[in-house]
Amino acid sequence: MGDITKQELKDIVFITAHNSGSLTSDVQRQIDAFDIDTYRRFLNLALERRENLDATGEPGGGRRSAEYLIEALEHLAYILSS
After folding, report:
1. Measured between alpha carbons, how far is 28 from 60 in angstroms, rounded to an integer?
2. Quick one: which of 44, 28, 51, 78 has its CA closest to 10?
3. What gap in Å lies between CA 71 and CA 2, rounded to an integer?
4. Which positions ≥6 away from 77 have C-beta within 8 Å?
5. CA nearest neighbour of 36 among 2, 64, 76
6. This model's pTM is above 0.70
7. Percentage of residues of the chain with pLDDT beyond 90
8. How far is CA 56 from the centre of its chain?
9. Residue in 14, 22, 2 with CA at minimum distance from that of residue 72
């Protein structure tokens, strides 16, 4: 497992929530509390976007690769517990 930090994931989740129009005060509280379900939902959304853009060759989708996001999802409970 790479050196994925909680703060890196928080940044990705926050940006994904913001860009998707889902960033409410309740979602912000869940992000700040490192709620695993919230993180899983937005990391999956980021991964879906990344994979779609990679498949079509379009730019965008964030700076994290699909492999990075998959690894983050696979180890999410561990990363958020540290």
Report:
1. 24
2. 28
3. 8
4. 36
5. 76
6. yes
7. 78
8. 21
9. 2
pLDDT tens-place string over residues 19-45? 999 999 999 999 999 999 999 999 999
Query: How far is Cα 43 from Cα 32, in angstroms, rounded to an integer?
Result: 15
* Chain centre distance of CA 23: 13
DSSP state string for 3-56: ---HHHHHHHHHHHHHHTT---HHHHHHHHTT-HHHHHHHHHHHHHHHHHHHHH
Helix (H) or strand (E) holding 7: helix 6-19
**Amino acid making up residue 35:** D
pLDDT band for position 61 (cuts 50, 70, 90): low
Quote the CA–CA distance of 47 and 44 in Å, as a whole number: 5
Tokens of 40: 């899983």
